[in-house]
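[agent] plan:
  1. take the single chain provided in the ticket
  2. run structure prediction with default settings
  3. attach structure tokens to the ticket
  4. add a short note for the reviewer (M.T.)
[agent] executing step 1
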Amino acid sequence: MDDYPEGSLDHNVPFLVVSGLNSNPTKPLLVDPNLREQSILIRSELPPIDGRVARTVLRCIQDTDATNLPWNAHDNPRKCKFKVRTIGREFLLPPRRVNLPDDFDVPLSPHVLHSPFSPLSPGSTLYPDGLIDTRWLGKHQESIPSVCLSFYSLTSDPTLATLHDNQLKTDINAVKNALNQSGYRCRLAVVILSDQSPSSIGQFQERLENIRRSTGLDPKASLFVLPTKRSEAELESAVESVLGAVFDQAIEYYRDLGRHSRKKKGRGVAPQPTVPPTTGTSHTLTLQGWTVRYDFKSAIFAEFRQEMDVALRSYEQAYENLLGVDILETIPGWSPRFNDARLLADIIAIRALRCLLWTGQSTAAVRRWQFHHDRIFDLVDRRGRGTQNYGWKAWEARWCTVMANLIERVKFPELESSTLLLYRPPERNLSAERLQPWELLHHQGYWYRSAARHLAERRKLALAIPEDDRKPPDASAPTKPGKAYSYDTYLCPEPHEEVPLVGTGVNHTKLIVHHLSLARGEFQKRHQVRASAELALECSRELERMGGWKQILEILTPLWRDMPFRAEGWWDVTEAISWTLRKAAVQVGQKELVVAIDWELLNRGFSRRPGWHYDITKSLDDVNVEEQATININDDYLTSFLQASFVFKNEEGKAGQSCPAQLSITSHAFPDAAPVILEGIQVEFDDSLRALRLKHQPSNEKAPAPSRLRASKVSLVESEASSDATFDETSENSSETATLVTLEGSDDLTLFPGQTRVFEMDIPLREPGDAKASSIQVSVAPPTFVLTYGMKLRETNSVGYWYSPTSSHKKVTRANPHKIRVLPRPPKMDIKLVKVLEQYYASETIELELEILNEEDADATAKLEVLLYGHDVPEYRVRTEHGDGKLNSPGLEAPRSHSVSVGSIEKAKSAKATIILDPVDGPTTYDLTVKVLYHLVSDPATPIVQQATYNFNIVNPFEANYDLQPRLHSEWPSLFDYEDVQDHSATETTRRPQGLAQKWSLATRYASFANEDLKVLDLAVNVLATQGNVSCTVSNDKSITAKGVTISPKTIEEAHFELIAQKLSLDDRSPSAADLAFIIKWRRLTSTDLEGSINTTILPLPRFFVTVSEPRVLAAVSYSSTPSAPSPVPSPSSSPTSPASAQQLVFLDITIENPSSHFLTFGLAMEPSDEFAFSGAKTTTLNVLPVSRRAATYRLLPLVRGAWIRPTLVVRDKYFQKVLKIVPTEGMKGDKDGVLVWVPPPDDEDEDGGGEDDGDVDGKVGGGAAGGRGRDVLAARDGGDGGARGTEA
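[agent] step 2 finished; step 3 output follows
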């Protein structure tokens, strides 16, 4: 839109002049020197305001400037939009009426003067029949403001208040009167700044009211008071409020102008000029022309009011009248007024398009754009100078550029590049219509591309102008008839300036490149790859005309490398880009690019270029080469005339053997191209195969005639990779093995056009696994450069071919014939476990002895790899003749692979190794994998693996169950014994326990689950931890001798331990618990190392409560031959099988322990029985003090022998009325009904046959059999069970 006159297409917003806030010189509003002489001066005598507050207010006003905002209604949320101009204290308005020019004769009749912008004034450029020009637009956009916003300050000094107020009133009235006398309707708004706060401004209310009455300004619309003693945010809000009222005044101003235009239009009479025309057409502007002028003015004023729908209607009316039969159709094509009318039609159409886009009617805008194009095309073709000239093409290019510029200024969110949308969806009211694709609003790249194509046609038509018309006009020479009217020069230069014979003229190529670059950028942003590539090629061809070779490289090089047209088979596009790029690369000296392009263009799939050598060795003949260039390319982004394949003859092979394979390379070069001599060929393999290299070796024989197929057998040898290798060892296709050892061979590598070279070779297979040929690299090394081209062997379903020497071939029917599966070489190394035990147990160190027997035909060098799998794998190591090796850390379920050297194993000899596993804690299962990795001395390159797997089930050698029974402790603390209660060792690091003590008996029965005899060396119970400030001591079992006890499989042994638990403090009577562990030390009978082979099995016991805080009742029994010698506290060794006489008495002691701090009373009641007679209180009461115990004894005379008797004794807590359960001790047993006491049989029965009863006693006293029920330990007040028992395996 830059081609149109300045200001003709500007967006119209209310014009605001700010006076009194800027003391710096500013650009005057009126710049026309002819008008300045008759201009109207508006001046204020007071100095402008300066300071921080003034700058803040001015910044807030300038923020509302909408000159550069997008042309839409939603990007700026502010209501107030102005075009702001800042002045000092004066400005000039254009004259309302202009005087006659000096060269005009003053008419005798009275004359009426008109505006200098009117076609009625003789001094106007429109005189006498012009419609309207951009000077009128500039008058309202730059010269005449809608509102003049003047700022004044209000003094706070009371001594100067009257003087300053009078000056203020005088100045405001002077400015107001000057504006009224100018004849313009522009408004005056006054803002008085006060240095007071809003709360204190009331003291000046009388002064302000006086100013208002004197000036006659409306305090709601024209006079504002702005206290400035406030925060910056509050000040900005107050300024916005003022601008809101000013904006309403501005809108009203333009509404008045619109009404005035419609009023003048409605008169229906064409006004008369100041002086009637006497030259030219001698006629004035018609009534229809005035109608167009008034409609255009009404539309402009509606735009100022931001009423785009109203403006659009006025523009449409003006457009139809302008292009009607009464105006443009009557103007001859040779008249300058014809182009003026065309210019006005373009301006009206562009402004109508902007109104449509402003309201979101994008599809309607495209239709309107096309309508104007077709209308002007018809008009110019009929009335103008035709459409087959460079001027019309220039207009078409300009018209497309206008649409692109409008889209850029409107900024539709749907057409942002981030959305990737190619066009904006149509409006809702048009969604049901069947729209054509070109009726949618496409992004600006579409329009720039159209403009570039029209510019190319403009250049074509301009270059076709005859030389006579391109000569500059000569005033002395006669002008050829009709020459001046043959070309359309609307907004474009004359023919002699467009394409002069001498000089540059219009740079069409630069214009085309500019528009193509803009279009290409938009297409690239939206990922339109093909369109952007097409534009890049067009742009490069235009740059070729200009010699912009570097720019061509910047544009085409990325496209050439990543061009998708190769894969899609668009060879014409690829060829065009390649030739253009090559020409630029030669000019710039890009040797690598020139060689790569020549390499690709050798393919006969492209069209042949006449006169081209098609010899890769001559690629750099036109390039200055100072040193040999190195070029590395591959088929990722480049096609080639070479096609390569690699085929294994067999699908499988064995390590240590070789497999036949063929490498074939086919040339698809042009038939007349020079043969290509390859410097070398390299084949890269994945996994275990060595890299393959073939070197060129010229044949000494006479060169035969080139045939389509030439096959040869190549012998390969292994060699170290040389440092001067042609191939790139660090390429991504090179494997780690290829940089060390390679397979090398040599042959004649000359390749003729259309020929297929086949190289057959035997590939040695080394390591087992899947292997494949990954890439093939060929190299060409003429004197000026070294070219390496890589071709990847991709996985496809296509079949390969196996060529025979007879020039025939057969298909390899399997998919991916470049792959091979290498099977392991059958190992002949035997692995045996010797001296394997029948069973392995937890808690012992396991040693496994391996024997590795070499049954190969040659000596072997071996390494041993041991992997142990399972849960909680212990640490293990391997011992060989060469030392020990730690293979794993404990706890890893997936051990790392480490190997231990075994050394050289001679033929038919064996080597030994020992695997040592640390002890494990519990039963588990492990899988032991033993690998022997070896290679024969005669073939060190072929690794061989022998593997054996063993399963080990490790079990616990022992399982145990246990009974914990209460016992009566002989010691009980006394509160009256101050020496025992007081802790004399308080300063010692270890305190002696002083609290309550309770005694327990732990009976443990352990069984052997081994499948052989084991020797138990020691038994013990350890206290692992205690809770509750308690000290526990355990007396170990003394039944095991120093030599130990042999225990057979599936047998049960019993051990007894005494446990004494004592609180540390007598004040602490809370319950306490202990964690115990049963420890068995044992060894195998077959073990020879008596010290080192002792194993320790630890069986943890559950947590036991060893002290209680509740009272408990303990029953104890003793026997006496005479009634007068009872034993109050029976010996721990007493048993129910002790011999007794017929007069034997049974003493039953009932002990009540009160560990609490309460005084307790218990009632004891003994019921008579038919089984015994008793002596003692049938009913009695025991008072038990806190932290004490009392005992009651009953003498029982049994009436039966060899039987269990049940004393029916009830112990009741008299306070809680709860019955306490009596807990039996040694020599007794209990059930749910109470305690039972054993009465021994007479001596003769015991000797004759009392074994059955004795066995019954042995089996039941203390808790029954090994798998019996458990008993509670204490008798609680709630009557709960008082025994505890468990089983631990």
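[agent] step 4 note for reviewer: The radius of gyration is 58 Å.
[agent] ticket updated
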